[in-house]
Design a protein that fits this description.
Elements lengths: L2 H9 L1 E2 L4 E4 L2 E3 L3 H8 L17 H9 L17 E3 H7 L9 H20 L7 E3 L3 H4 L3 H4 L4 H16 L13 H11 L7 H7 L1
Antiparallel strand pairs: 1-2, 2-3, 4-5
Helix pairs in contact: 2-8
């Protein structure tokens, strides 16, 4: 990731208009960009629902078959919004051979959860796999595909940019789908763009 270029974009983001203010004018990532770059659907059911943090570890256990451990009574919950990505990698690195369909489905849902929450909807830490999407990912496979993942990804990126442009700490990070933002930047600005062959391989 080109952190310097992404930081420069964040510095030019304006929350009032959800656009980058540049010498050439105002630009922003659109739904068409989402559909063309990531291939995500921009039509369908809105990705929304009630946010209830109570019992999220139990919901994780129902989804993937392993419940994240509770924190001790004298410990601070460092990941109250989800599990660490290393927890998923440790427990679901590869599906065992010769297992029943239920186990395969649990591994598939764990992979989908990791990809959606960690790639499309990451927070500023970059390593928290949020429980926010669990109600949708527990649905039947065909139902999951009916959601407008593209519009939700764009909304989350806008929110992450609005948050990042107001941070002042040295360790401030950008949430949202940074891969999308970087490819969009390469498509729009020739400066700093990789060679054509490299860009085609990356996309």
């Amino acid at each position: 990731m080109d952190s310097a270029a992404l930081s420069a974009l964040v510095d030019r983001w304006r929350p009032e208009t959800h656009t980058f203010h540049l010498p050439c004018g105002e630009l922003t990532v659109t739904l068409q960009d989402i559909a063309m770059i990531l291939g995500l659907p921009i039509d369908g059911t809105a990705v929304c629902g009630p946010l209830n943090p109570a019992g999220w570890r139990d919901r994780v256990g129902e989804l993937v078959g392993i419940r994240p451990p509770d924190v001790g009574p004298d410990e601070t919950d460092k990941k109250p919004t989800g599990v660490h990505s290393s927890w998923l990698s440790t427990n679901f690195n590869g599906c065992p051979e010769n297992v029943n369909d239920g186990v395969v489905q649990r591994y598939a849902r764990a992979w989908l959860w990791h990809m959606v929450a960690g790639f499309l909807f990451p927070d500023g830490s970059g390593n928290t796999i949020s429980w926010l999407l669990l109600p949708i990912l527990r649905l039947e496979w065909d139902m999951i595909a009916t959601y407008s993942w593209g519009s939700a990804t764009l909304a989350w990126l806008y929110r992450a940019l609005c948050d990042a442009c107001t941070r002042k700490g040295e360790n401030a990070n950008l949430g949202g789908c940074a891969f999308l933002l970087q490819v969009w930047m390469w498509e729009r600005f020739p400066v700093g763009r990789p060679a054509k062959g490299v860009l085609e391989v990356l996309i």
